[in-house]
Amino acid sequence: MKSNHAPTEIRAYTTPDPDALVFLARHPAQIERPARAGSVYISREALEDHGDRAAVEGLAYLLARVEDDTLPTCPVMRKAPVLAVRDSEGLRVMREGDSLPF
Protein backbone atom coordinates (compact mmCIF):
# COMPACT_ATOMS: atom_id res chain seq x y z
CA MET A 1 0.00 0.00 0.00
CA LYS A 2 1.40 3.40 -0.96
CA SER A 3 0.53 6.47 1.08
CA ASN A 4 2.17 9.45 2.74
CA HIS A 5 2.39 7.44 5.96
CA ALA A 6 4.81 4.80 7.17
CA PRO A 7 4.99 1.62 5.07
CA THR A 8 2.24 -0.80 6.05
CA GLU A 9 2.22 -4.56 5.95
CA ILE A 10 -1.23 -6.11 5.51
CA ARG A 11 -1.83 -9.84 5.81
CA ALA A 12 -4.79 -12.22 5.87
CA TYR A 13 -4.96 -15.28 8.15
CA THR A 14 -7.34 -18.10 8.96
CA THR A 15 -5.21 -19.36 11.84
CA PRO A 16 -5.05 -19.73 14.80
CA ASP A 17 -8.85 -19.37 14.67
CA PRO A 18 -10.31 -21.38 11.75
CA ASP A 19 -13.73 -19.84 12.46
CA ALA A 20 -12.56 -16.42 11.30
CA LEU A 21 -10.74 -14.65 8.52
CA VAL A 22 -8.36 -12.14 10.07
CA PHE A 23 -6.90 -9.11 8.35
CA LEU A 24 -3.85 -7.65 10.09
CA ALA A 25 -2.16 -4.31 9.41
CA ARG A 26 1.17 -3.40 10.95
CA HIS A 27 3.37 -0.29 10.70
CA PRO A 28 6.94 -1.09 11.72
CA ALA A 29 8.59 1.15 14.30
CA GLN A 30 10.50 4.11 12.97
CA ILE A 31 12.81 6.58 14.66
CA GLU A 32 10.09 9.21 15.01
CA ARG A 33 7.16 6.90 15.81
CA PRO A 34 6.38 3.63 17.61
CA ALA A 35 5.11 0.47 15.94
CA ARG A 36 1.35 0.43 15.28
CA ALA A 37 -0.98 -2.45 14.47
CA GLY A 38 -4.60 -3.55 14.31
CA SER A 39 -6.72 -6.42 13.09
CA VAL A 40 -10.26 -7.08 11.89
CA TYR A 41 -12.00 -10.46 12.33
CA ILE A 42 -14.60 -11.71 9.85
CA SER A 43 -16.59 -14.63 11.21
CA ARG A 44 -17.21 -17.81 9.24
CA GLU A 45 -20.96 -17.16 9.53
CA ALA A 46 -20.57 -13.70 7.97
CA LEU A 47 -18.64 -15.21 5.07
CA GLU A 48 -21.27 -17.93 4.62
CA ASP A 49 -24.20 -15.50 4.88
CA HIS A 50 -22.77 -12.51 3.00
CA GLY A 51 -19.89 -13.93 0.94
CA ASP A 52 -17.09 -11.71 -0.27
CA ARG A 53 -19.02 -8.59 0.76
CA ALA A 54 -18.31 -9.37 4.44
CA ALA A 55 -14.58 -9.74 3.79
CA VAL A 56 -14.43 -6.58 1.68
CA GLU A 57 -16.28 -4.60 4.35
CA GLY A 58 -13.85 -5.71 7.05
CA LEU A 59 -10.80 -5.05 4.90
CA ALA A 60 -12.14 -1.62 3.88
CA TYR A 61 -12.52 -0.68 7.55
CA LEU A 62 -8.93 -1.72 8.28
CA LEU A 63 -7.58 0.14 5.25
CA ALA A 64 -9.46 3.28 6.32
CA ARG A 65 -7.78 3.08 9.74
CA VAL A 66 -4.40 2.74 7.98
CA GLU A 67 -5.12 5.68 5.68
CA ASP A 68 -6.36 7.83 8.59
CA ASP A 69 -3.22 6.85 10.54
CA THR A 70 -5.31 5.70 13.53
CA LEU A 71 -3.88 2.26 14.21
CA PRO A 72 -3.10 1.92 17.94
CA THR A 73 0.45 1.76 19.25
CA CYS A 74 1.47 -1.88 19.55
CA PRO A 75 4.95 -3.29 20.14
CA VAL A 76 5.99 -5.82 17.51
CA MET A 77 6.14 -8.66 20.03
CA ARG A 78 2.49 -8.21 21.07
CA LYS A 79 -0.66 -9.46 19.39
CA ALA A 80 -2.34 -6.71 17.38
CA PRO A 81 -5.49 -5.35 18.99
CA VAL A 82 -8.83 -6.31 17.41
CA LEU A 83 -10.34 -3.12 16.01
CA ALA A 84 -13.57 -4.53 14.58
CA VAL A 85 -15.51 -7.74 14.05
CA ARG A 86 -17.67 -8.46 11.01
CA ASP A 87 -20.26 -11.09 11.90
CA SER A 88 -23.68 -11.95 10.45
CA GLU A 89 -25.18 -8.90 12.17
CA GLY A 90 -22.75 -6.45 10.53
CA LEU A 91 -19.51 -4.67 11.35
CA ARG A 92 -18.96 -3.86 15.03
CA VAL A 93 -16.16 -1.65 16.24
CA MET A 94 -14.51 -3.17 19.29
CA ARG A 95 -14.01 -1.18 22.46
CA GLU A 96 -11.47 -1.84 25.20
CA GLY A 97 -12.66 -4.79 27.27
CA ASP A 98 -14.90 -6.26 24.53
CA SER A 99 -14.48 -9.94 23.75
CA LEU A 100 -14.82 -11.70 20.41
CA PRO A 101 -18.40 -12.87 19.85
CA PHE A 102 -17.38 -16.24 18.39
Question: Can you give a write-up of this model?
Answer:
It is a single chain. This protein is an alpha+beta fold. The protein has two helices and five strands; from the N terminus they run E-E-E-H-H-E-E. The protein is elongated. The mean pLDDT is 87.
Describe this structure in a few short sentences.
This protein is an alpha+beta fold. The chain has helices spanning 44-50, 52-67; strands at residues 9-13, 20-27, 36-43, 82-87, 90-93.
Q: Please bin the fraction of helical residues.
A: 10-25%
In quaternary terms, these chains amount to single chain
Q: Which strand order do you get reading across the main beta sheet?
A: 1-2-3-4-5
Order of H and E elements: EEEHHEE
Largest sheet: 5 strands, mixed
Kindly provide the radius of gyration, computed on alpha-carbon positions and rounded to a whole number of angstroms: 13 Å
User: What spatial form do the alpha-carbon principal axes imply?
Assistant: elongated
| End-to-end C-alpha gap | 30 Å
Strand content: 25-35%
Quantity of strands, as a count? 5
Uncertain segments are none
- The secondary-structure class comes to alpha+beta
Number of helical regions: 2
Give the overall pLDDT as a whole number: 87
